[in-house]
């Protein structure tokens, strides 16, 4: 005799519900529902910084389409437009520019958009180079230990005893001495990337080394060793994903520092060539005419550089707090 609890409409509904698989949330929903996304949504400073940084980055990437002119095209420049104040009509040509022009008649708005492209390219490339070098050195030093750890960390300690800008100047000077004079201008940006990257790898190496020394003693790494996994596979598949949190924080903050370092080197005249000026080069040009009354040539690039660096730095501070398990 059948049990009434296991027969009838209720039993059919139970079977039907059991037969329907539960819908798993999509990847976008998981990202949106994560702790980091919630921290971002509830932080006004992070939202404003993200919007500002994204706006400047998009404006720089879309510069060829949204810039009024191409400031690096000599055929489009008119020296008669030089030193035109913002929103004022030029007495000779009758042209009006939103942010004025510089000494060569370049539209400042266009020059800033194109200059931001170079500054961002140099900053991102230098941070990626520093990340690759620092992560590699940190993983080797933390996992192998012994003489490899001693040699790599002593090199890092020696480099930390000097300011990063001096290391970058030294590397830039040595590289320019090796490169033939005919190729110095075309290779200037790449030399600048190498100089900044080689001067900033130490922070990544020290953080990754410490995290690797903690992770290699955990059970999942010991289990991988027991089953005969290759050390290279252990480093890439097991240890590296677990040490990327602090690395992302340092990379975000390091991006702002790399952009400032590029601007500093360009301001000192050892950065990108004048034919492809970055924000630092525009600031150096504007500084020459500050006391003669052409204040806008210096002010607008400096404000854009300061805004970009501040927004990225605030995002790095938020990411550091968001990934800190003690603050959750």
UniProtKB/TrEMBL annotation:
Keyword field contains Cell membrane: yes
InterPro entries in UniProt: BP-dependent_transpt_permease, MetI-like, MetI-like_sf, OppC_N
Membrane-spanning intervals of the chain: 45-67, 118-143, 155-175, 187-208, 243-268, 295-319
First-listed, main subcellular location of the protein, grouped into a coarse class: membrane
Lineage: Bacteria, Pseudomonadati, Pseudomonadota, Alphaproteobacteria, Rhodobacterales
GO biological process: transmembrane transport
UniProt keyword terms in alphabetical order: Cell membrane, Membrane, Transmembrane, Transmembrane helix, Transport
Record flagged with keyword Transport: yes
Record-stated family: Belongs to the binding-protein-dependent transport system permease family.
GO cellular component annotations of the record: plasma membrane
Entry-linked SUPFAM superfamilies: MetI-like
Protein's membrane topology: Multi-pass membrane protein
Protein name listed in UniProt: ABC transporter permease
Residue stretches making up the ABC transmembrane type-1 domain: 116-316
Subcellular location per the Swiss-Prot or TrEMBL entry: Cell membrane
């Amino acid at each position: 005799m059948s049990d009434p609890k296991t027969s009838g409409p209720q039993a059919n509904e139970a079977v039907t519900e059991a037969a329907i698989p539960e819908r798993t949330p999509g990847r976008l929903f998981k990202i949106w529902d994560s702790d980091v996304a919630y921290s971002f949504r509830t932080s006004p400073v992070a939202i404003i910084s993200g919007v500002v940084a994204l706006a400047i980055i998009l404006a720089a990437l879309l510069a060829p389409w949204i810039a009024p002119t191409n400031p690096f095209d000599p055929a489009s420049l008119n020296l008669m437009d030089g030193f035109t104040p913002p929103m004022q009509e030029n007495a000779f040509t009758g042209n009006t520019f939103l942010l004025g022009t510089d000494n060569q008649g370049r539209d400042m708005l266009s020059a800033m958009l194109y200059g931001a492209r170079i500054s961002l390219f140099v900053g991102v490339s230098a941070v990626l180079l520093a990340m690759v070098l620092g992560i590699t050195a940190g993983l080797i030093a933390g996992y192998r230990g012994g003489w490899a750890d001693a040699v790599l960390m002593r090199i890092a300690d020696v480099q930390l005893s000097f300011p990063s800008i001096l290391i970058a100047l030294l590397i830039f000077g040595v590289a320019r001495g090796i490169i033939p004079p005919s190729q110095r201008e075309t290779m200037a940006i790449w030399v600048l990337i190498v100089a900044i990257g080689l001067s900033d790898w130490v922070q990544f190496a020290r953080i990754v080394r410490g995290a690797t020394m903690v992770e290699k003693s955990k059970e999942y790494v010991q289990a991988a060793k027991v089953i005969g996994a290759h050390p290279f596979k252990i480093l890439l598949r097991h240890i590296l994903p677990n040490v990327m949190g602090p690395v992302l924080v340092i990379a975000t903050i390091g991006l702002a520092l790399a952009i400032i370092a590029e601007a500093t080197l360009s301001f000192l005249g050892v950065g990108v060539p004048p034919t492809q000026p970055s924000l630092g080069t525009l600031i150096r040009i504007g500084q020459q005419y500050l006391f003669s009354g052409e204040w806008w040539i210096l002010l607008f690039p400096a404000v854009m550089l300061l805004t970009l660096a501040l927004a990225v730095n605030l995002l790095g501070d938020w990411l550091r707090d968001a990934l800190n398990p003690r603050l959750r």
